[in-house]
C-alpha cells in the first residue's frame, strides 16, 4: 500500500463523502464507509449513500453489507476494516476511512473484547425473559447492580441477558476478564472536516429537501411494508420521522422540520465527540485537501 490509512470524520452533511471520493480518485484510493446506516441494503436516500456512479467509480467497503433486519455492530464493522485493509495492501491502494459514525473508528482504535457466539439456547432463555420487560430489567440488575442502562433500553437489556445466559457472567464481568484487543494496528492520520454552524445548518436543510424530492417517503413506505418498525435501522433519523408521517401522525411540513431538527442535534453531538475523542487535524475543505496531499 502506498501509505498508511487516513480517516476523514466530521458532522453529517459536512461534505465528507464527496471529498473522500475526490481524494480517492486523485490518489489511487479505496474507501471504507464509516456510516452506521449505509451498511444496509435498500436504505439509500435516508442514509445519503453515495450514488451508484460514485460507488462504481471508487471501490467502497462498508456499504450495502446487510439487509435492515440483520443486526450490524462494531464487531461487524471490524470485519469490513480487515477486508478493506487487505484489499488495499494487495492492490497497492490508499485506504480512506470516511463517515460520521466515528464511534466505530474510536472503538477499533481503542480495541474490542472478543465476544462469544450466542447459542440458540441462550437466545431462547432471553426471549422468554423479555416477555416481561420489567422483570427482565430487574433480573439484569440482580446480575449487575452497577448497570447504567435505562429500563426502557430493550436492545441493551436483551444484549446483556444474552451474554449472561451464554457465559454465566454479566457483560461487565466478561469485559473485565477479556481485555480489549486493538483492531487497527496501523498509524492513521485523522482529519476532522470542520464546518461553521450556519453553513452546516444550511447544508442540512438543503440535503433534507433533496432527500424528500428524491423519494424519501416512497423509500420508507417500501421499508415500512417489508421490515419490523422496531429494528435498529428503522429508528434512524429520516426513517423514524417518515414513519410518523406515513402513520398520519404529522404532516409533510412537520416531517421536514423534524428531520432538520434531529439532524442538527446529531451534528452537534458528532462535533462534540470528534473534538473530545480524537487527536486530529481539524479544518475546512481546502485545509483538509492540503494536509492530505502532503501525506500522499
Largest sheet: 6 strands, parallel
| Overall average residue pLDDT | 94
Give helix and strand order, one letter per element, not per position: EHEHEHEHHHHHEHHHHEH
- From the N-terminal CA to the C-terminal CA, the straight-line distance is 11 Å
The class by helix and strand makeup works out as alpha/beta
Low-pLDDT segments: none
Counting DSSP H or I runs of 4 or more residues, the number of helices is 13
How many E strands? 6
Description:
This protein has helices at 16-26, 52-57, 74-90, 102-110, 120-129, 133-143, 154-167, 171-177, 197-213, 216-226, 239-246, 252-277, 285-295, and strands at 6-10, 29-33, 60-61, 94-98, 189-193, 281-283. It is an alpha/beta fold. The protein folds into two domains: 6-111 and 182-295, Rossmann fold (3-Layer(aba) Sandwich), CATH 3.40.50.300; 120-177. It has a six-stranded parallel sheet, with helices on both faces. α11 (239-246) runs antiparallel to α12 (252-277). The radius of gyration is 20 Å and the shape is globular.
Give the helix/strand layout.
Layout: E1 6-10, H1 16-26, E2 29-33, H2 52-57, E3 60-61, H3 74-90, E4 94-98, H4 102-110, H5 120-129, H6 133-143, H7 154-167, H8 171-177, E5 189-193, H9 197-213, H10 216-226, H11 239-246, H12 252-277, E6 281-283, H13 285-295
Parallel strand pairs: 1-4, 1-5, 2-3, 2-4, 5-6
Amino acid at each position: 500500500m502506498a501509505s498508511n490509512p487516513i480517516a476523514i470524520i466530521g458532522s453529517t452533511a459536512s461534505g465528507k463523502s464527496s471529498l473522500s471520493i475526490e481524494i480517492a480518485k486523485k490518489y489511487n484510493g479505496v474507501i471504507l464507509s464509516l456510516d452506521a446506516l449505509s451498511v444496509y441494503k435498500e436504505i439509500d436516500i435516508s442514509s445519503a449513500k453515495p450514488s451508484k456512479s460514485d460507488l462504481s467509480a471508487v471501490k467502497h467497503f462498508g456499504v450495502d453489507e446487510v439487509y435492515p433486519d440483520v443486526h450490524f455492530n462494531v464487531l461487524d464493522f471490524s470485519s469490513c476494516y480487515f477486508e478493506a485493509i487487505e484489499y488495499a495492501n494487495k492492490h497497492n491502494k490508499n485506504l480512506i476511512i470516511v463517515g460520521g459514525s466515528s464511534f466505530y473508528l474510536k472503538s477499533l482504535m481503542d480495541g474490542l473484547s472478543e465476544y462469544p457466539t450466542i447459542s440458540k439456547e441462550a437466545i431462547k432463555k432471553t426471549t422468554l425473559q423479555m416477555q416481561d420487560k420489567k422483570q427482565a430489567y430487574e433480573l439484569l440488575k440482580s446480575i449487575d447492580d452497577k448497570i447504567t442502562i435505562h429500563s426502557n433500553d430493550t436492545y441493551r437489556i436483551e444484549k446483556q441477558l444474552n451474554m449472561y445466559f451464554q457465559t454465566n457472567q454479566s457483560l461487565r464481568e466478561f469485559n473485565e476478564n477479556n481485555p480489549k484487543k486493538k483492531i487497527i494496528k496501523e498509524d492513521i492520520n485523522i482529519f476532522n472536516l470542520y464546518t461553521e454552524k450556519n453553513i452546516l445548518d444550511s447544508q442540512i436543510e438543503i440535503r433534507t429537501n433533496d432527500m424528500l424530492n428524491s423519494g424519501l417517503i416512497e423509500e420508507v413506505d417500501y421499508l415500512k411494508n417489508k421490515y419490523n418498525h422496531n429494528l435498529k435501522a428503522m429508528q434512524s433519523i429520516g426513517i423514524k420521522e417518515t414513519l410518523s408521517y406515513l402513520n398520519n401522525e404529522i404532516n409533510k411540513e412537520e416531517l421536514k422540520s423534524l428531520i432538520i431538527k434531529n439532524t442538527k442535534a446529531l451534528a452537534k453531538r458528532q462535533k462534540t465527540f470528534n473534538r473530545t475523542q480524537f487527536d486530529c487535524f481539524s479544518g475546512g475543505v481546502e485545509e483538509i485537501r492540503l494536509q492530505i496531499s502532503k501525506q500522499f
